[in-house]
Amino acid sequence: MYEVLEDFAQTNNLRETSPGLKLFIGLASILLCVSSPGPVAPLLVAASMSAAVLALAKIPARFYAKLLLVPVSFAAMSIVVILFITGGGAVLLEVPGLPLAITADGANLALLLLARVFGGMCSLYFIALTTPMTEIFDLLRKLRVPAVLIDLAMLTYRFIFILIEEAGQIYRSQVMRLGYRRFRESVHSFGMLAGALFIRTWESGESLVLAMDARCYDGKLGIPSDSRPVSVPALAGGLLYLSAVLGVSVSTGGVVLV
Amino acid sequence: MTEPLLEAENVAYAYPNGPAALAGVSVRIEAGSKTAIVGPNGAGKSTLLLMLNGMLRPASGAIRFDGRPLAYDNRSLRELRRRVGFVFQNPDVQIVAPTVEADVAFGPVNLGLPPDAVRRAVRDALGYVGLRGYEKRPPHHLSGGEKKRVAIAGILAMEPAVLVFDEPTNTLDPASSEEVMELLDELASSGRTVLVSTHDVELAYRWADSVVLMEHGSVLARGPPEAVFSDHALLASARLKPPALLDLYNELGLRGVIDRDAPPKSVLEFTDRIERAMHGHAPARDRNGRIYLCNADLTGGDEVRRLVERGTVDHVGAMGTRAKEFANRERILLDYTYGVIDKCILKALIGENSLIITTGGMVEHVHRRIGEYSAESGRALAVIPVREPEDASLAKDDRIPI
């Protein structure tokens, strides 16, 4: 999954759009979702972000649906709890024999929460599926995030994939020798995997220092990036979209300031 | 004897809690040479190489660069490492940045070059290894051979005088290995000093002009590859076997089929030898094949494609990464991607025409090599340059109809 996500970020149809604009629209949408008092605005965001991902960036619908299933299943579980424990308003449904009931307020809150989660996740996926991590690093540098943090993030990002590869190799070699056949063995094998991974991480950390030294490391990583200009129609469209969502949000429940 | 560029004198080293990794090793690397350090696993090759750019400090003995012993303070080490570039065996260890571009820029940025110079260095280095267009790719999306070339570009971007490669073709498939070795040839022919460690005797025999044979942390022999690899006992004591070509030559010599004088370096040389031994002379042929030479920097693809489509040439070979890129772009199918000149001479000798696509300084090299061969063997081989488009009419007149 991790590689597929990366692949789409690298090859989607919105790849050449300014990463700043994509990030701005995505983040602003998340903020609007979270701050909206009614469920209409988040649902609007979810719909439009999904449309952008599917129609503009040309991400396959099946893959996108599979991705969305992950957060939605989490949200569904928590919403069941909220449905029952939040009180107030008219009783809609009672569980016979148990002191449990769904009330109108509970149902409204659950709906709002689901809409917010959905809208937020769609916005987040919009960023993740259209903007490669590496461009976000460039952007962070332009936003004057401290270099130490960015360098650390870049190294982490680079080594995530090596770590996954290593873990996969160890895991496969364990499976091949029947390491996960019974529960006891599984626990034991997993412990070994974690231990081996720790040692290998340590070693690759040391060889990283060596490699960086061999290349005259002087505390600098990355290059001054070339900026891609934001196209005016794209910026105007984005702003128009965001103000429309804000308008819907305000008109369906007022602004929540506190 | 000239002053060596890089020299290890009686160097000894032991890893903490380990046996001696190097026990009194002396090596001299001449400027502009192609040296292979050959030995089995654990012979101390990597340890020696790591000393040459100051990554390890010898316990005793001295390393000299440009006649001066290495100093181990930070400033001198940085200067040394800029001039002696080290390409690690595993490119995953060496590639640190999340994009190809950022990784190649790592060295230049740390050397404190201004942004424009960094960009230029990155562009040049990526062009040299044939990876232009890969700038924004993350390294984990590259193949093994591509990763290796990124690692090489990262070192080239610092413009070192000496390039040190630890096992350059290990874990690469044959085609990628050949590409890397050809890149090393290109680097050497542009005047850089290239040093590799390897346990691949075939590779060392074909590529190197000087070999250092190592085992158990000491040097067993040094000299030209044909001398070092002819000594079976010596090779056996280093747990290696002789290159197939040399082995065959020695055995044929022992049976009295051919005279043993100077061992052949290539299949071409060997074929000629056997032919002479069999017929007593090089048989005269009615007509040798022609070798067309195309400079990919100057010639258009149409010109070259026409040659191939008309059947004027039977075989096409490309030398160097830029020439291969050109062939790829122009959809010209390549028959030879390594050992190109020799292959084309071999084909010319049996009356078939071939085309060599190459770039830059390699054009001169092709002329020289074929000229040398013609002079040595007494068989005149014609090299016909494929003209650049502006005087295409001239080229047409030049071409002899078949």
UniProtKB/TrEMBL annotation, chain A:
Cell membrane is among the record's keywords: yes
Localization in the cell: Cell membrane
Keywords: Cell membrane, Membrane, Transmembrane, Transmembrane helix
Keyword Cell membrane: yes
BP terms from Gene Ontology: cobalt ion transport
Membrane topology, record value: Multi-pass membrane protein
A matching Pfam family: CbiQ
Residues annotated as transmembrane: 23-56, 68-93, 113-131, 143-164, 234-257
Chief location of this protein within or outside the cell: membrane
A cellular component annotation (GO) from this entry: ATP-binding cassette (ABC) transporter complex
Entry protein name: Energy-coupling factor transporter transmembrane protein CbiQ
Source species: Methanoculleus chikugoensis
High-level lineage: Archaea, Methanobacteriati, Methanobacteriota, Stenosarchaea group, Methanomicrobia
Gene that this sequence comes from: cbiQ
UniProtKB/TrEMBL annotation, chain B:
Record GO biological process: cobalt ion transport
Membrane topology: Peripheral membrane protein
Organism superkingdom: Archaea
Entry GO CC: ATP-binding cassette (ABC) transporter complex
Location of this chain's protein in the cell: Cell membrane
Broad class of where this protein is predominantly found: membrane
Key word Zinc present: no
InterPro entries linked to this entry: AAA+_ATPase, ABC_transporter-like_ATP-bd, ABC_transporter-like_CS, ABC_transpr_CbiO/EcfA_su, Co_trans_ATP-bd, ECF_ABC_transporter_ATP-bd, P-loop_NTPase
Keyword line: ATP-binding, Cell membrane, Hydrolase, Membrane, Nucleotide-binding, Translocase, Transport
Domain ABC transporter: 6-241
GO MF annotation, one: ATPase-coupled transmembrane transporter activity
SMART domains, alphabetized: AAA (SM00382)
Keyword Membrane among record annotations: yes
Family membership: Belongs to the ABC transporter superfamily.
Function recorded in the entry: Probably part of an ABC transporter complex. Responsible for energy coupling to the transport system. Part of an ABC transporter complex. Responsible for energy coupling to the transport system.
PANTHER family, per database record: ENERGY-COUPLING FACTOR TRANSPORTER ATP-BINDING PROTEIN ECFA1, HEAVY METAL TRANSPORTER
Record protein name field: ABC transporter ATP-binding protein
Organism ancestry: Archaea, Methanobacteriati, Methanobacteriota, Stenosarchaea group, Methanomicrobia
Gene that produces this protein: cbiO
